[in-house]
Amino acid sequence: MGLESALQPLRASLRGALLLPGQPGYEEARKIHNAMIDRHPAMIVRCAGVADVTTAVTFARSQGMLVSVRGAGHNVAGTSLCDGGMVIDLSEMKGIRVNPAARTVRAEPGVTWAELAHELQTFGLAATGGYVGTTGVGGLTLGGGMGWMLRKHGLALDNLLSADVVTADARLLIADSREHSDLFWAIRGGGGNFGIVTSFEFRVHPAGTVLAGLALHPMSKGRKALEFWREYESTAPEEMTNGALVFTPPPEVPLPEALRSGPVVGIGGVYVGPLEEGEQALRPMREFGPPAADTYQRVPYSAAQSMADFLWPKGRFNYWKSSYLKSFSDGVMEKVLDYYAKAPSPRTVVVLEHNGNSAMSRVPEDATAFGNRNWDYNLLVTAVWTDAADTEDNLRWTREFWSAMRPHLADSAYVNYLGDVEEDSVRAAYGRKYERLAALKNKYDPANFFRMNPNVRPARTESGSAGTA
Ligand SMILES: Cc1cc2nc3c(=O)[nH]c(=O)nc-3n(C[C@H](O)[C@H](O)[C@H](O)COP(=O)(O)OP(=O)(O)OC[C@H]3O[C@@H](n4cnc5c(N)ncnc54)[C@H](O)[C@@H]3O)c2cc1C
């Protein structure tokens, strides 16, 4: 059956919507977080449940269509959208079921971390999600998942207990430590390469009220603040997951005059644990300088989950570079501060994340497909701007900055922060695990049906086939 004549039966067999170019809802549905990504899929299937997902997979295969899978649409490289093919859009699958007694939660793939935090907060519980609330549970978990409880409880994927996966042949498999354990290994780090996860089950943790905020310093004192922070992190308790941010406060953020005239350096994060002990542990960071402003407060974990959202609103132009650092050296500080001072856009944010001495680094390297747990610091340059006319300047600045950083960068990166998903970057992100992933890709998706992602190509079989694309 040709594509046109097959559309009517497809529409009739879906509980969710089928959006085609020119129809109401299509234009909005093809917008994702990063305004740089402007693609025109032939159709968007807004799935209402697992049946729609299997129907979409079966249909796309029968038509030989390119497919992309969309959760909350945060992937900066734009892997959730394709040109000319089918977008399997999970963003309206938002079921959440908390089991407070077992301290677990089940979430459908359209749920964001803010939504999950909201439901869990009622029970004083929290999930190890991301650092912002608007990101989806799907892509973030399958690629890793660095968030505010990373040092105490590990990555989001370290807290994944089980997943329901629709594979390329439209079967629904349960993957956990007992059933399809090889698939369970692969999806914990291997992203969307192995199938579409329609339900995630996570272990969650007591959190309740936490201490969250930043100590803010003007750029003139930024170097001293970063040096202090490096020293502070060497003994910071695991209850604390911190970062350093170089950014320009947007005008709507109420700050003292000293911080209104340009970029600032913020150090801080979230402490999840006994509050009195947290106040004690935080005191040096809140006193150093002293900071020009201190935003630390006691807040529900769900508020901490969204406290950084204002820095990355939807619909701006984004170009990202990221890598683990060989070390957080003086040279790194110098270059970060020098280059930020020349950034063409005040909406750009440079993030330094501390992952060391943590539950994340204690998980054995081979336990999951996630690559490279042993680097203490991660660098993320998020060039963000609001006017398309400024694109060239921002791309040039980011590339120059990145090239100046090269001597300081480890040879590996976090796959979810990659601004491009070319084969070399993906291989470097997975390191020696790439070959094992490629063999599993051959088992679960030999035709490389799921290839709009940081793609692991199926290993060559003895007959010589290595999938398409
Ligand atoms: C503003 C911003 C902040 C971020 N902050 C963090 C952070 O704090 N910590 C962190 O670790 N990362 C962070 N990221 C990176 C984030 O983890 C990735 O962008 C991730 O891909 C987002 O997942 P998503 O579901 O929202 O994205 P989407 O773009 O919808 O999905 C990305 C890809 O993941 C795969 N995928 C998504 N859902 C499924 C599913 N259910 N089944 C199978 N495959 C699926 C698909 O291949 C898809 O193309 C951030 C990104 C942005 C833009």
Bound molecules: flavin-adenine dinucleotide
Strand content: 15-25%
CATH class of the largest domain, named Alpha Beta
| N-to-C CA distance | 24 Å
Structural class: alpha+beta
Give structural notes:
The protein is of the alpha+beta class and 469 residues long. The protein has three domains: 15-89, Uridine Diphospho-n-acetylenolpyruvylglucosamine Reductase, domain 2 (2-Layer Sandwich); 96-206, Uridine Diphospho-n-acetylenolpyruvylglucosamine Reductase, domain 3 (2-Layer Sandwich), CATH 3.30.465.10; 209-417, Vanillyl-alcohol Oxidase, Chain A, domain 3 (3-Layer(aba) Sandwich), CATH 3.40.462.20. Helix content is 29%, strand content 22%. It has 15 helices and 19 strands. The chain has helices at residues 3-12, 26-29, 50-63, 113-121, 137-143, 150-153, 181-187, 222-233, 275-287, 301-305, 330-341, 359-362, 391-405, 423-430, 433-444, and strands spanning 17-19, 43-46, 67-70, 86-89, 96-99, 104-107, 125-126, 160-166, 172-176, 196-203, 205-206, 209-218, 240-247, 264-271, 293-294, 297-300, 317-324, 349-354, 377-385. Strands 12, 13, 14, 15, 16, 17, 18 and 19 form an eight-stranded antiparallel β-sheet that branches. Strand 5 and strand 6 form a beta hairpin. Helix 11 (330-341) runs antiparallel to helix 13 (391-405). The protein is globular, with a radius of gyration of 22 Å. The model is unreliable at 464-469 (pLDDT under 50). It binds flavin-adenine dinucleotide. Residues 33, 68-76, 79-80, 90, 109, 130-132, 135-136, 138-140, 142-147, 191-192, 196-197, 312, 416-417, 452-453 line the site of flavin-adenine dinucleotide.
